[in-house]
Every structure is written in structure tokens, then in C-alpha cells.
Specification:
The complex is a heterotrimer of chains A (310), B (280) and C (464).
Chain A (H helix, E strand, L loop, with lengths): L11 H5 L7 H29 L2 E2 L8 E2 L3 H7 L2 H31 L7 H13 L2 H11 L6 H8 L11 H29 L3 H9 L4 H12 L1 H16 L3 H6 L11 H10 L4 H30 L5
Helix pairs in contact in A: 3-14, 4-8, 4-11, 5-8, 8-11, 11-14, 13-14
Chain B lengths: L7 H31 L22 H9 L2 H32 L5 H11 L4 H15 L5 H5 L6 H12 L3 H9 L4 H12 L1 H16 L3 H6 L8 H5 L10 H26 L11
Helix pairs in contact in B: 2-13, 3-7, 3-10, 7-10, 8-9, 10-13
Chain C lengths: L10 H32 L11 E7 L6 H14 L3 E7 L4 H12 L6 E4 L4 H6 L7 H4 L7 H6 L2 H6 L1 E2 L2 E2 L2 E7 L1 E5 H6 L11 H11 L12 E3 L11 H14 L17 H16 L9 H6 L3 E6 L4 H7 L5 E4 L10 E10 L6 H11 L2 H11 L12 H9 L1 H9 L3 E2 L8 H16 L5 H23 L1
Parallel strand pairs in C: 1-2, 1-3, 8-9, 11-12
Antiparallel strand pairs in C: 3-11, 4-5, 6-11, 7-9, 7-10
Helix pairs in contact in C: 2-15, 9-11, 10-11, 10-18, 18-19
Classes of the chains: A mainly alpha (310), B mainly alpha (280), C alpha/beta (464).
Chain lengths: 310, 280, 464
Amino acid sequence: MPSKNAGIGKTTVIRRDRNSKKNILPALGFLSPTLVIFCTFVLFPVFFSFYLSFHKWNMFSSGQEFIGLANYRRLFSDPEFWMVLKNTFIYTIGTVPLNMVISLLTAIILNRQIAGKRFLRTAIFTPVVISPVAAALIWRWIYDPNFGLLNYLMNLVGLPAVNWLNEPKAAMIALIIMGVWKTYGTNMVLFSAGLQGIPDHYYEAAEIDGAGWWSKFWNITMPMLTPTTFFIMIMSMISSFQVFDIVYVLTSGGPLGATKVMVFYIYENAFKFFEMGYASAVAYVFFAILAVLTVFQVKFMQTRAGYEAV
Amino acid sequence: MNIDFRKSGRITKDILLHILIYALALATIAPFIWMLLTSVKDIGDIFVYPPKWLPSKFHFENYRRAFQAAPFGRYYLNSLLVALTVTIGQLITCSMAAYAFARLQFKGREVLFYIFLGTMMIPYQVTMIPSFMVLYWLGWIDSYKAMIVPGLASAFGTFLLRQFFLTIPKELEEAAYIDGCGKFRVLWQIIIPLSKPALATLAIFTFMGTFNDFIWALIVVNSDHLRTVQLGLAIFRDRYITDWDLLMAGSVMATLPILIVFFFAQKYFIKGITLSGIKG
Amino acid sequence: MQFKNSGNNDSAPKCANVIIANLSKNSRYLFLSFCLLFSLISCGKKEKSKGDKITITFWHSFVASTIPALEDLIEQYETENPKVEIKAQYVPTGDALIQKLITAIQSKTAPDISWIHSDFLADLVDADAIYEMDHFIKGENGLSQSELEDIYPALLQYSSLRKKLYCIPMEATNLALIYNIDMVKEAGYQDGRAPSNWEELEKYAEQLSKDFNNDGKFDRIGFFLPIFPAAGPLSGWMVWQWIPYLWQAGGYIIAEDQSKVLYNSEAGVKALTLWKNIYDKLNLRTFTTDYDVSFASKLVAMAMDGPWNLPRFNRMLQNLNWSFAPLPKGPVKQATICGGEYLVIFKQSEHPDEAWSFVKWIIRPDIQARWSMKSGYLPVRRSASELPEFKAYLEENPNFKVFIDQMEFAQVQRSMDYGALQITRHMAEAIEEATLGGGDPKEALDKAAAKSNKVLQSYWKNAK
């Protein structure tokens, strides 16, 4: 067992000098497993895709044909690219705020004294566990305009049936509902974990000072949840932007392309039309857009909540 | 379950909250209930109108038929093995990397972190073929390594843990450093025990994500003895036809174990009151 | 997480020790189960080639109901050829098959033989990944002229690209009408026969659609019109079912010299108008549920399908009085579309000649007959249907006979050496627009044809 004064590790001297900010060796020690795997299996394919975006490749051949910026020029002049970009934005704007609000509320409610909490949390987490394909197949039945559950229930309460997946606007709403259903359980769990980190005595002190539930929420809960919220917001945005599985099975980009989202367009060009170079170019433009959005979000959160929390 | 006694005004609020949350939970779990009930229906009973929840006759043999359609026993073992290994591996690598990003100061820290984040924004549909090429060059195609090793590092997991580590006050670590603890020991003995909810959360997500993965397992595995449950379930769906009864049975078998684990593992995300050191 | 109020560092290691001790107890169990799992896995049977047997890998997408027939086929071959082992591997069809083939070819782990779809035949050929079948046919163990001619010519035409044969058909399929006899009788047709032409089809579709509870919505659909999103995985299936109507009206998809498309001709407009009329009359809001299950649930009176579902239907539809019938005749002629599964041999194969032997054996008339009777697919050789046991089988299985009889007027699409995928997509978009989108058939077809012709022109320009 190490004594109080001995340190474990290689660079005792440098570690004692905690003012050194260029101290990379210990960091490297901690980062190396992740970095090695990351560089091999993530970073390299990412760069290779970038390389591919300047080529034409049908994936069956062993060689790629260099075509310079042709793919990029093509995508900017393709009206379908702009349409899928718009659809993707609509989907994201539709799901992310809704998702975060519902999951936060649920996490807060389930943090109180409620009977049967474990069952409730499991019930809410169920959509996350069901495979996207099975879930989308079930929802396709639910949304069936003639024989589905949803229109049946709506008829029961006197509402008119909606032509869910066959009407462009309705289809997008249907997709958003299913998207939120599938993912809010994840965020609920994340918010729950975050809520655990808020010490009870903050609330108790506030109550002694006479604060009501809104004040407690706004002045204690929200600020303490900032790192969690930031994480959830970024991840939700990224995953909404990249939605694919449920679109593929539920609407297949229809009707008439109303729910065709960006990744669907990329997938189609790669595996239906065998144009991997073009698909890679689209993916990179998409990435650039997403990166810019994320930077804005980060800056926004940093100015609001302080640099440390983010 | 302890029920606090409150003033009567709050009892109404309590009841309302209960109703609200139960309604939401019920609506959320309804599709899964339908999946459960459908898995024991006769195929002509599934899409009748008006929709019928309960089967007219219980066909429990759907499970037997589904299980026999392919070597699901073996597929289950494979899925479990891969998911468990990746989960444990990620817990280790991500906590180490997250600690570096959250606490250690080094040159290029922010840049590296943003590169990590950035890679999450490239859709996997374009990187999966190049990733496959890497595995091919390593000679790992059609092996367990191919399914496990690429998943051992995760930008998502690193990001998640980093955020949680940021909320731990620095005083604890400072105290430990003063006493001569090394960085690794600080991580292992102080940060990790305090991060149980985050670790448990990551564990569940990673386990589930790996268990439900289809595409990666599809392209790196050929041999039957390596296949996973999700690959096995694909046999119930053809291009135009779906064997609904068997697919639902198979999906229930794939989903239920994880739900059960989640039900019992919840206490790791939700602290017990006894763990808190500050009271009163 | 809860923080400890400690400036006192003694509690830190102490607390940690307690945690580690507790951790050990649980993780001990975890570790044990892990080891057990691992040992179970490692003891698994590994498939390696046995001794001096040659192993041929064969990739297919036969679904669960057809697997027994496939196993029977393989068993028979292995009995007749003890030195060869056929390893059949299931690959989910559609995109999964594409992705697997891509990755296999790139990693030089391609199978010896595989099913393919015509979607990517051109790409496979361009990548020089598969053999030209003439290499084997004109070789020592080849096929005679009469054997070649015995194969339905439509199938061979479909197996060719730019006039060269690249695949061998393993089985054939075509499209027929399935209908509920009781519902037809109920509508007043006492003899329970199916609609025989377009007018009757429209009439039946209307009459068989019922609104039982008068809520303005049909509770039973007379005819399942396969309308799917043009960008989705079923879009090819939708176009495949529309094409026979185009032919029945006397039209063709593309000109013989492939210089332009012809599907927007008058014939095309007639065919699409038929579909649009039925769609509008039935107030069809596209089925998102499957036609086969809907038919089994008595929600659909008529639909179209191929023979591959026969084994499944025989099991699923026991409570119904149903039958298959030929597709209704069009204004110009009777026609149906012919499909099938096609086999290719990869150049990466280490045993191409043995692979070819297997393929050649599969298309032997007696094997075709046996395979056909067990699987529900149609034989690729005419002489197979002459065999006595096959004829007896047809007597007992009138539904199957419907498909065999249709082979006489089953057509395949004209060769589309370039742009086949895009052209199919354009047709799908036109169909979607005219039905779901409520558009005018002629306009929709013209718009699609303009796009297709542009694609063709750019190809021909580059080809020069």
C-alpha cells in the first residue's frame, strides 16, 4: 500500500508541479486506449470518406475515379438536396424541444414520491429498447388510415380520421410523434441522473426562505442541470439530424418525398444508386452544417451558463 | 414506499401528477403491450378491424416456431457476449478519457474534444464501408474481434462522462492530491464511486445499443456461429412480406431481457438516501 | 451523486475500500458468469472445410418457409456428389444483400455463387466481379443448344446485359391475381370466378369494397393496389406490378434501341389511368399494412402476388375460400411479368467449375420439377412441366397451375443496359403522383419520361 507521501505513477516530479498546463503525459496515459481505437476505427474512416467525396466509386470495383469537386457542385444544384435539408430541419425543430420538455418534466415528476416509480420508468424506457424496425412496423399499423389504432381511437372520441402517412404534412407530424416517443425515455434517464447530483439541502434552504416550486425549479434545478442539459441538447440535435431507421420503415421518405431526410438521401445514393462518392460529399456538407449549428449552441450555452459548466 | 403526509391542497396536486404520469407511461408502453399480445396471436388475427388487443386463441407455439427458425440460442449467446464486453470496455476507456478531458489540463484539449464531437456528426452510413475496409486490412473479418473492438471507444460515452465529472467539486480531488494520491487512484477511488449514476446510465445505453445493432454485425460477420439476435430476426422479414407473428415473438425475446435488467438496475441511477453525506 | 463533506482524507480511502469490497462481491458473480459465457462460446462448433471435400458457398435470401425445400435440394446434390459440400448462407434480401456483396467483394471473401437482383447486375459487371456464363456454357461441362432453348427465353433475356449472359435463372415467378371466392360470390357472381379483363377488374374492385358501419370509410377494400412511396424499399415492387398493365395496353417501357423511354405512350396513360380510377373509387389511402396479412384478415378481397407465397398461404389462409387466377386481360393482350432468382458465379471463387456444376445441376429438368414442387417457385425449363410427377402435382394444385399456365404469356422488361435504376425510380414517381398525389396520369408520365430520357441521353453521349 502506498504511503501518504509517495505518489503512484511515472512522472512524480511533473505532477507535483500542478501549475504546468502543458502536461501531456498523464493525459496521454488516460486517453490512449480511447485514442488508439478511435483513430483506427473512427478517425481514419472519417478521413477516407472525405477522400471519397472527391471520387466516383460504385463500391463493387476496386478502384475509385477522381473527379475533383464535381460531387459538391452536383449537390448544390440538386433541388432534392435542399428539400431533404429542409425536411431534416423541420423534423429536428419538431422533435428536440418537445422531447426535452417532456423528458425533463417526466424526470422531475418521477423524482418525487410517486407510487410504482420503477414500473413507470421502465414503461417510459421501453420504446428505447425496442428495435427501431420492430417499432416502426408497429407504428405503421397504428397510423394506418383505414385499419389502424390511432384513427380508430380518434373516431371513438369523435375526431375525424387523419390520412396519416399519405398526406405530406400529416406524415411529418406522424414521424415527429414517433420520433419523440422513441427517444424521450433516454433523455428522461439522463435528466434523472443529472437530478441526482443536486443536493437536497439546496432545496431545503430555499424552502426555508419561502421559495415556491417555480422559483426552486428556475433558480436551483435548471442551473444545476446545465451540463446535463447541454449534453442532452447537443446529442438530441445530432441524433435528430441523423434520423434514418424509423423513416426508412415508417414512411420511406414519402409521401412524395415529404419526409425524406438527409441521411435517407445519403443512404439512397450510396446503396441504391451505388454512388458512394456523391453520398460522401453530401455527408460532409451535412456535417459542416451540423458542426456550425453545434458551435452556435456551445457558444450560446457558454455565455448563458458560464464557461466552466460547459 | 414512504408517502409523505401533506396538506390537502397538495394531495390534489399529487393525485393529478399521478394521473398524468400514469397516462403518459401507459401511452408510451402501449405499442410494446401490443407487441406482446401479437406475439401469441394467429396471423389472421393481427390486423382485424376494429383492432383487437387480446388474441382469440393463444398461440404460444409462435415462440417455439420463432426459436426454431434459426439457431437463436447461439445468437443470444453471441449478442450477450459482444454487448457485455463492449459495455465493460467502454466503461473503462470512456471514464479514463472523460477524466482527461474534464480534469487534466493539456495542450490541445479543447481541440481534441471537439474533434471527438465532430466525428459523431458524420452519419455512419458513409463511414461504415471505410470502417469495414480497416477491419479487412487487419484481417479481422468474420470474428468476434470485429464486433467488439471498434465499439470499445465511444465519443458519446466520453462526452457523457465528461459532463458528469464536471459537476463533481474539485475540492475532493485537491484533498486527495495533497495527500499524495496519484491521478489514477483519484479517478478510481474518488471520481468513479461518485459517478455511479452516470456509469450505470452509460452501461445501459451501451449494452442496449450494441445488442440492437444490426448493420455492423451484418457486414462484418458471415458465419452462422457468429451471428447475433438482430441478424437472426431478419429472417422473418422478406422484401414484401413479414412474418408478423414470428417477428413479434422474436422481438419480444430480444427486448424483454433488457427491460428486466433495466427494471432492477434502476437503483444505480437513482441514489438511495443513505449515500448522501450531508443531511440537516 | 452525493458529495462527501470531507476535508478529512482518512475517510476517502476508507470509504473507497468499503466500496471496492462490495464491488468485489457482485463483480465476482459477474466475472464467473462472464467466464462461463466465454467458455460456452469458445466451445462452439467452427465450420471449416472437412478433409479433401470441396466447399462451395452459396448466398441466398430464401425465407423461413422455403428453407426446407432448399435443404432438400442441397442434400440431394451432396448425395450425388459426395466430394462437394454446399454451404448455404442466408443473407437478408434487398439492401442487406447489396451491402454484404460489396463488403465481400472488397475483402476478397465473395461467395462462390450468389443470388443477385437485376438492380446491381450492371455494377457487378462493370467491376468485373462475375463470370460471363458463356465461359462455362461453351466449355467442357457446358449446355447444349437444345438445353439452352428449353429455358424460357424471357428468363435468359433478363439474365443478359449488353447481349451477354451473366446469370443463370434458378427459378421463375410471375404475377397473378389472388381473390376471396366467397366475397366474389357475395357480390353476385355465382360462379365465383375472377375478373377477366380491365372493365371487370374495376367493377369488381368497386363492388367488393364495403362500408359496413356507414362511417364513410371502407372497411373492406375490393382490390389492393400496391401504391408505395417512390423512394422506399417497396417502390420496385410497385413498378414491377404496374408493368404488366403497360404491356397489356400494348406499351413498352423503353425503345428497342434504348434511345428513349416509351412508358408515357398512350398505352402507359391507359394503364396508369386504370390504376388511378381504382385508387380514387376505392378512396384508397395507401395500405401501410401488408397485403398478405390483410387478405388473411378479410380486409382485402383481391390482390396480386407471385407463387413464392403459396406454401405460406396454404398455412395462413385455411379459414378462407380463396384462389389464384390469371391477371385480367388488357385492351390489347394478356400479359404478366416474369421474374425469378438469378445466380452468378464470382471470379473470386476458388472452385468456379465445381460451382458451375452445381448451377448446371439445379437447372436439370427433373431437379427443377422437384425444387418447384417443394418450394412453390416455377421451373425455368419447359420440359420440367412435361414430367409425369409434375403434371400430377399440377392436377392437385390448381393455384400453382395458374402460374405455370401464365408462363406462356409472361414477358420480361426489354434490356435496359444503362440507367435502369433511375428509370424505375421515375416510373415509381409517376405512379405515386397520379394516385397518391392526385395528379393527371399523362402529365405525371410525361414528366417522368423527360427525366428518364435525360438520363439516357447523358449515357449515350458518354458512351460515344
